[in-house]
Amino acid sequence: MKTGKKKSFSQILHDYLHSNRSIGITLLVCTAVSLTLANLDFTQGWYQYFWHRTFDGTMSHHTHLGWFVLPNSPEIFINDFLMAVFFFLAGMEIKREFVTGELSSIRQSLLPMVAAVGGMLMPAILFALTAKGSAYMQGWAIPTATDIAFTLGVISLLGRNVPAGLKIFVTALAIIDDLGAILVIAIFYGGALQWGYLLLVLMTVGILMLLNKRGFRFGWLHILLGLIMWYGMFNSGIHATVAGVIFALLVPVPLLHRFEEMIHIPVYFLILPAFALANTDLVLPEHPIQALSGPLSTGIMLGLVIGKPLGIALSCYFLVSRKWAQLPTGVNWYKLIGAGMLAGIGFTMSIFISALAFNGGEAEDIAKISVLVASLLAMVIGYFWLKMEKSNFMGANLPFITAGNPSLIHLAGAAPFSR
User: Fold this and answer.
1) pTM value?
2) H or E segment at 62?
3) Does domain 106-186+288-419 have CATH number 1.20.1530.10?
4) Contact yes or no for 177/119 (Cβ under 8 A)
5) What is the CA radius of gyration of the chain?
6) What is the pLDDT of residues 328-369, one digit of tens each?
């Protein structure tokens, strides 16, 4: 009888922290804990007070500390400062993939790029049609987002049911989706522009570019300038997390991979769990069916559960029918639709946009609860769709499969991304 060598605690911890599925598990646990504490009579009051109490006792988003204007509550600190670090990581991944990775050529990037656009447009359209004439139209971007950590976590659970080509496609799609979300946040969810602070941002960007051009080693001076840039952005009227993306784009290409590895664990096992705890302290409605049947909730759930896979599939069909692109190696239409379903897991990104769109009150709570329900539905449906694939389902008998090459983007030999 063979006895395998037992892993040490440090080995178990290392494996956990470097697994995509661990990220999803951690965020699910944090969300469950937060919802529980927010709905128990003896914990509800202090738990919500902990996250939302303001440092200066006012209801303002900002507080003054001497000459400085800073976040005014733990929740705002997480959403505006710590999430800027998350977007810094996302920005580095976007830059790396476009410069040296799977998005560095038109041939490789066309399918996931168009699919990501379709996967954002269709949910927005469904939401707009559902919420038309209501007071919730500013939430149109909520169902357009994809939580890449959760999506890849579910894909990792499927093992051999998901070929490497599909993992690459989904990761590329989600990275482009992140870029789209960043642009949406920057353009549509800011306040009145403060030109003095914007000038400060531009000055720091200029200095960072000059340092890079002169070959200065990336170090503490760059980090200090990055913090100054964040401060300017926080007070500029553009959401502060955009500073993280701009700073990422100024990181020299040779340093991208090393920096990603440095902050990967803190971002996914400290910052995102803190975000989940602070933003899901939701008091569940007494009549959930009634609360989740309004235009806001319906629009979000339709967008994530139906709009995402529909937009992605139609966009890919548009390309394949014209022979402009090819499917990933080993991927058929059944698997592609399943991947589109998993892309409907909006979770952290959709919750983040919910907070920006409604900024407190009942609408924000309903939006966040709707995101949780829709993300859970997308996760379960997508998982079992891919798990129970039938080889003869959606095969060559369907005319739109045989209309073009059965494979739409060839990424042979490429290794799956990790995030």
Assistant:
1) 0.83
2) strand 62-65
3) yes
4) yes
5) 22
6) 888 899 999 999 999 999 999 999 999 999 987 889 999 999
